Amino acid sequence: MLSLPANWAFRGGVRCWRHRAVLRGALKAPDVNGVRRYSTPIRGGVAGMEDILARVVAPLPTYETRDKYPPPPESNSLEFMHFYAGLEKEEKLGFLTKLSHDFGVDHKGISELALRLLDAQLRALATILQVEDRLLYGLTPRYKQLLNHISRVEGGVKFLVDLRADVLEMISSKASETPQIRDLNGTLKSLLSEWFSVGLLRLERITWQSPCDILQRISQYEAVHPVRNWTDLKRRVGPYRRCYAFTHATMPGEPLVVLHVALTEDISDNIQSIVREFATLDSEEDVNKVNAAIFYSISSTQAGLQGVELGNYLIKRVVRELQSEFPHMAQFSSLSPIPGFSSWLQGLLGQCKKEGRGSDLLSEQEWEQVEQAVDSAPGPAAIEALRKLIATGEWTRSERLTRVLEPVLMRLCAWYLYGEKRRDYALNPVANFHLQNGATMWRLNWSADTSPRGVANSCGIMVNYRYYLNETSKNSALYLQNKVYMYFFCSFFYLMLV
Ligand SMILES: CC(C)(COP(=O)(O)OP(=O)(O)OC[C@H]1O[C@@H](n2cnc3c(N)ncnc32)[C@H](O)[C@@H]1OP(=O)(O)O)[C@@H](O)C(=O)NCCC(=O)NCCSC(=O)CC(=O)O
């Protein structure tokens, strides 16, 4: 029995009183994602939650009647959606905990079926297969059929995407770490991965002629290089630029993942040349100037679709689109930020200061140059001075210090990207994304993002992840199965200096 905070029942009671009042027509129920109001009154508090769940989460049909059982009424789905939409954040935690705990897999039934499978091992293969199929069916959580039915009502898929976003937030914030909540996340992810498979996605090119609300969403969803104004946005969908999004029939007008591309002569080493400088040409007159496609921003817009790998699908699909538009194009690369490098470096400097050992980071000669450049005494004082300068970005104002720090920061950044791991994969999430896709860590670029954000996040350094099209499948398998990173030696020679 789930124990909820004592006041929950009261608050829930008040809320459910409001629901009841709404249902009697006393108040107009707000439509939720276009979901029509349900018609059955509900009791308040935990009892109200149990009442709702017991009523709308229908028991799994028996194995024998599983294909013949009539689907539950649509009102069950609507009632569940409306009830959930009316809950506060902490109430949703309680509700989803109860759903996942009490309406999941019948574990007792599974253990009985597992014993039957063991007993059947000496029987005919047909019998074994039949018992295995029963076991497989028995492993279906009771709530899964409700989720399937919800996906068929208007706004249902978007509701489930947002529901998974709530579940992911509960897991990442450690508000809930139960295995049942993880199971609920797994079930939602597998359903969403089916519904958002690449064959069901629609590739849309976004141009200045696209509907205003789409352009507005593209602008607000841009998570990597924020759009400053309409002029900036017009540039990003204008000449020598491409902007693509995947959309889905169940979520019309909602770009699910957005990719911004610059069409250039060579592989770009600087983001300001892409998002700051304005083109002098009004149209793409000289396509011979276009030899490379630079992916300079990719953003998933639906938190609930994390792990569905829409970004990977989109990059691969856009490459094909560009190859058909520019048959001679042979260079496909990202120009990616390196979020986390500066904070990682600050942590290292803090450790060095504590242990009074800076020699791991900089050579004696480099430290001497830094001490002269920052006019500091050697040892902890120099380390602290360097920490402050990097934290504020002040170091970029000193040519002398910049000259001293370039080889140091490039060397440390190469190691951060290549050597620092999380569960044997790249620690940096952007590196992990592109390496998962089969890209090669191709080139580190100094002073590639001189914006305050770029200097603060990664000391202004950016990286190209190069897509060698004939090698991405092999590279992806090597990375995912063997944790082997592909990097281009001569651009990452800094690694040899580590
Ligand atoms: C990068 C994404 C589009 C990937 O989304 P997908 O749906 O394709 O993939 P996914 O959700 O399965 O995640 C795949 C991997 O992306 C990596 N990843 C990268 N950035 C992440 C982020 N901010 N949050 C969560 N994961 C992130 C993770 O390591 C994850 O691996 P795992 O699941 O194993 O942990 C998205 O994560 C996102 O929108 N991130 C925020 C914006 C951003 O950082 N964009 C990339 C910047 S580089 C850039 O924009 C230029 C360019 O390179 O194009």
Account of the 3D structure:
By secondary structure, the chain is of the alpha+beta class. The protein has helices spanning 6-23, 45-56, 74-85, 89-102, 107-120, 125-138, 142-150, 156-172, 179-195, 212-221, 230-236, 272-275, 310-325, 341-355, 364-374, 380-392, 399-418, 429-436, 452-458, 472-482, 494-497, and strands at 201-205, 241-248, 257-264, 292-300, 331-334, 421-422, 425-426, 440-445, 462-466. The protein has three domains: 21-105 and 140-195, Butyryl-CoA Dehydrogenase, subunit A, domain 3 (Up-down Bundle), CATH 1.20.140; 199-334, 3-Layer(aba) Sandwich (Aminopeptidase), CATH 3.40.630; 341-497, Aminopeptidase (3-Layer(aba) Sandwich), CATH 3.40.630. The chain has 21 helices and nine strands. A hairpin with a 2-residue loop joins strand 6 and strand 7 (425-426). The N and C termini lie far apart (56 Å). The structure holds malonyl-coenzyme A. It is found in: Cytoplasm; Mitochondrion; Peroxisome. Pfam families: MCD, MCD_N.
The CATH architecture of the largest domain comes to 3-Layer(aba) Sandwich
CATH level 1 class label of the largest domain = Alpha Beta
Spans where pLDDT lies below 50 across 5 or more residues: 1-43
Strand proportion, as a percent range, falls in 5-15%
Helix-strand sequence:
HHHHHHHHHEHHEEHEHEHHHHEEHEHEHH
Q: What's the CATH topology label of the largest domain?
A: Aminopeptidase
